[in-house]
From TrEMBL:
It comes from the Bacteria. Gene3D superfamilies: Phosphorylase Kinase, domain 1, Transferase(Phosphotransferase) domain 1. Pfam families: Pkinase (PF00069). It comes from Streptomyces bohaiensis. This is non-specific serine/threonine protein kinase. Keywords: ATP-binding, Kinase, Nucleotide-binding, Serine/threonine-protein kinase, Transferase. The lineage of its organism: Bacteria, Bacillati, Actinomycetota, Actinomycetes, Kitasatosporales.
Amino acid sequence: MARNIGSQYTTERVLGRGSAGTVWLGRGPDGPVAIKVLREDLAADPELVERFAHERRTLLGLEHPCIVGVRELVIDGDGTELALVMDLVSGADLRAHLERHRRLAPADAVALTVDVADALAVAHRAGVVHRDVKPENVLLDTSGPAPRALLADFGVATLIDEPRRGTASRVVGTPDYIAPEIVEGLPSRAPVDIYALATVLYELLAGFTPFGGGHTGAVLRRHVTETAAPLPGLPADLWELLQQCLAKAPASRLRAAELASRLRELQPALRGLPALDIETGEEADPGRRGRDTAEESVEEPAAPRGAVALVQGTVTDPDRVTHTRMRVPDAEELAGGVRPARAPRPRAGRRRAPPRPA
Ligand SMILES: Nc1ncnc2c1ncn2[C@@H]1O[C@H](COP(=O)(O)OP(=O)(O)OP(=O)(O)O)[C@@H](O)[C@H]1O
């Protein structure tokens, strides 16, 4: 049933649900919009409401073709309803796109990453850190000749996380994309977004994230102690960039604008390259990675990739749960030095045919 959000907007139907609330297709004075109505328990948190009002100007000021614009932040009535009114994006999200294609050709993966890096450059310049860059938060506008990536959900992770920051042993984010400094309890600054974006790029190319798989503690530990396995067949320049942005030390990562420009320089050389042809243990036995070595003895059931509840007990759609508040592994768990993650192999027995003469 249609319902009013503030004085100008009405909701029409549910577009989807996430851990922070429900996204509705809505209507406003300038036409259709997407409206994210935050969960009731979040709206009932006075600190969050205050921050919501405080962040208003920054979030409304973030404008770029690759950012899902926030048009209004609505605090309704006595503050029992909080909603973000956003531009409506026509296509699916990058997670759905990746599930359909499994791996993207390097040129396509890089083009989408450049869009997100451009969005981050604008946000970082405005002092906004996204803190939850992942394929679910990248929407694809498919109305033009080539899909354009738009980064959504700016400010949401910060709004929701802040009151609970006092709990030093908890972190908020999505395990596969979380930067090592967050795992170590350091503040989330702009380089966490670069690390997450590099993880997304790796995933678009490889079909899996560099440190994902298995239970949350194992994933967090890998971010701190392992280095990403090289991807066979990936042009060396692109691999170098990826490694630089996945550096453990935040200061060693590129800034967003620099990442965008370096990726743009590589684009001409990537044109026409097919998606990587690699074999991983997970393809034959999904979830195997989580059972490697020490993890074998852990009884905890494997979480779906990148997925546990932001605030426990708030799962709205079990297939699409994407946040977590996690326990930070203790020093002993994190010990063990940096070692390379298990390397993917080129697919055996499937040589690509040499190019045929015209
Ligand atoms: N501006 C928008 N235009 C169109 N669809 C949107 C928009 N924002 C979100 N959606 C859709 O609404 C759904 C829920 O989005 P939401 O941001 O709440 O969840 P999520 O990002 O998938 O998960 P989480 O919030 O837990 O990280 C998604 O399927 C997304 O594609």
